[in-house]
Amino acid sequence: MAEYEQMKECTFKPKIKGDVSEETLKPKLDERVAGLDKFMQMRDKHKKQQIEKKQREEEVFGIEKKYSAAKHEGFTQPVPFNLSYVLFVYE
Fold first, then answer.
1. How far is residue 44 CA from its own chain's centroid?
2. Which of 12, 48, 54, 58 could form a cystine bridge with 62, CB 3.0-4.6 A?
C-alpha cells in the first residue's frame, strides 16, 4: 500500500511522439538479422526429422494397425488330451 502512495505522487510524464516515420524505420527494416537463414534451415530440418521419427515409430511400434479385433471375438475351444500317448516323428 505504501508503494501505491509513493507512485500516486509521481509526476513524471514522458514526451512521446506520435507515429514514427517510415524514413526512420526503413534502414532497420532492410537490415538482415545475422544467422536468421541458418536458424530457419535448422528449424525446417528439425521438423522434418520429427516427422520421419514419428513415421519410423509408427512402422515399428504401430500396434493398433497390426491388431485385429476379429481374431479375438471367438472363444477358445478346449480339446481333450492324453499325456500317456506320445507321438514321435523322426525324419
1. 13
2. 58
Structural domain that includes position 52: 30-60
Radius of gyration of the CA atoms of the chain, in A: 37
Q: How many CA within 13 A on the CB side of residue 21?
A: 2
Grade residue 54 by pLDDT with cuts at 50, 70 and 90.
very high
Length of the chain: 91
Confidence of residue 70 (pLDDT cuts 50, 70, 90): confident
Q: Is there a domain that residue 83 lies in?
A: no
First to last CA, the chain: 97
Instruction: Quote the CA–CA distance of 53 and 61 in Å, as a whole number.
Output: 12
